[in-house]
């Protein structure tokens, strides 16, 4: 047996050498390179089909007490969960879906198409005869040149309409009901810190609840254009994360969340006075004990739904912020009337998704009033929150025009060397004049030697 394996290994190595040589020959020619990629994919698919046969053989003829999946995992090249999935599929192909297995080995279907077909067919009635199951497989293999793996799975799930059209509707209803029960039983949401500055969120919900969740999240997802001036080009997953934060802000601002112990949900943050004023040190999220950067603590200290506890040098409590000390309902109502949403140029976040921001930080003596406040979404609030350890020239600055009360944004010099003030497009039709030219008084206390903006 060892001689057979060695001979086969030498032949496979020879094939790999030929493919590597072919890859060298097509360098510089995109069309030919993609053609070779397609041929390699087809070859890999056929090899994977043969691999499935070998996995089934190893499972049925292996030594008792040690499964093929465990032996495969022992090579350290594949996880145990992946090994078990592959062995289950190999057994399904051999026991029930032999025509799909043959089409996979022959290169008629790809590995992904084969997996999609099997996943769909496993939803069909168990009472199906062998002839009926073979008829389904033959039909589906015929669609392989026209349908992708997901489409083949959907068609496979509906093959009962071909096999038993009279009972198809009832069978489909039973399947959907069974799936709904399973989905409800499996619903879960896990939220845990990764201890590296992030919170990991993963879970699953029934499809109807998931569609509702996705619809709301999509409505709140910022447009790519709203990030244009930030120097960042986040992908859709990052923008959806920002949308989830918006959603939490809307819920927090609604005043309709249930009270616990007589109080509304809020976040408690402890931070040292040095961290608050000078950016030295860090804060702590009281609920989880996770550390929080000084910049994040300063941003959170602006918001009405955060209660910062300021500690002195010996950790004595110097001040406990109360929600009514921050942007009160009347002040917020005035900001909503004036700003109509996030005022950062290009952002489309609605007022309910925004936080109040002091243009002159309250840690620098700024007051909580309409003339010193603007609405910002959490993403842009984090972007413009001043850092006392960096030069004003490398930070965004906001100046409220004393004449009309509109907020102008001066970009950092790494984004615009001229630092030309910007105004949100929603204010451009209000008869605005030139931007104010005076510098914010508090900004003069920041370092005048620009540091690396990164």
UniProtKB/TrEMBL annotation:
InterPro entries, alphabetized: DUF222, HNH_nuc
Location of the HNH nuclease domain: 330-382
**Bilayer-spanning residue ranges:** none
Q: Where is this region: Disordered?
A: 429-454
Q: What is this protein called?
A: DUF222 domain-containing protein
């Amino acid at each position: 047996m060892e001689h057979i394996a060695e001979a086969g290994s030498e032949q496979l190595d020879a094939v790999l050498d030929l493919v590597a040589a072919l890859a060298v020959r097509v360098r510089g020619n995109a069309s030919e390179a993609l053609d070779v990629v397609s041929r390699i994919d087809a070859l890999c698919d056929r090899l994977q089909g043969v691999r499935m046969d070998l996995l089934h053989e190893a499972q049925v003829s292996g030594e008792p007490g040690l499964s093929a999946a465990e032996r495969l995992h022992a090579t350290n090249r594949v996880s145990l969960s992946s090994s078990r999935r592959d062995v289950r599929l190999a057994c399904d192909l051999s026991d029930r879906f032999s025509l799909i297995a043959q089409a996979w080995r022959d290169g008629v279907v790809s590995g992904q198409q084969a997996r999609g077909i099997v996943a769909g067919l496993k939803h069909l009635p168990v009472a199906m005869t062998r002839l009926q199951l073979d008829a389904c497989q033959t039909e589906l293999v015929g669609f392989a040149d026209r349908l992708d793996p997901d489409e083949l799975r959907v068609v496979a799930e509906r093959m009962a309409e071909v096999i038993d059209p009279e009972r198809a509707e009832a069978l489909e209803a039973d399947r959907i009901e069974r799936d709904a029960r399973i989905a409800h039983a499996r619903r879960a949401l896990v939220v845990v810190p990764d201890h590296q500055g992030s919170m990991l969120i993963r879970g699953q919900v029934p499809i109807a609840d998931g569609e509702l969740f996705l619809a709301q999240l999509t409505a709140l997802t910022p447009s790519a254009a709203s990030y244009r001036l930030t120097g960042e080009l986040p992908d859709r997953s990052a923008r959806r994360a920002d949308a989830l934060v918006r959603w939490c802000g809307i819920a927090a601002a609604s005043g309709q969340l249930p009270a616990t112990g007589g109080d509304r949900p809020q976040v408690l943050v402890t931070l040292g006075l040095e961290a608050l004023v000078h950016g030295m040190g860090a804060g702590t999220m009281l609920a989880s004990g996770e550390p929080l950067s000084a910049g994040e603590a300063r941003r959170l200290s602006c918001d009405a739904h955060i209660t910062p506890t300021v500690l002195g040098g010996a950790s004595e409590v110097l001040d406990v912020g109360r929600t009514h000390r921050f942007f009160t309902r009347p002040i917020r109502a005035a900001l909503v009337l004036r700003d109509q949403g996030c005022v950062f140029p290009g952002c489309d976040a609605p007022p309910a998704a925004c936080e109040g921001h002091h243009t002159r930080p309250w840690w620098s003596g700024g007051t909580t009033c309409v003339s010193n406040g603007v609405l910002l979404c959490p993403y842009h609030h984090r972007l413009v929150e001043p850092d006392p350890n960096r030069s004003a020239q490398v930070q965004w600055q906001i100046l409220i025009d004393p004449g009309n009360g509109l907020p102008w944004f001066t970009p950092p010099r790494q984004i615009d060397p001229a630092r030309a003030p910007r105004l949100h497009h929603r204010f451009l039709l209000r008869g605005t004049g030139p931007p104010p030219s005076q510098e914010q008084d508090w900004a003069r206390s920041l370092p005048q030697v620009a540091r690396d903006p990164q």
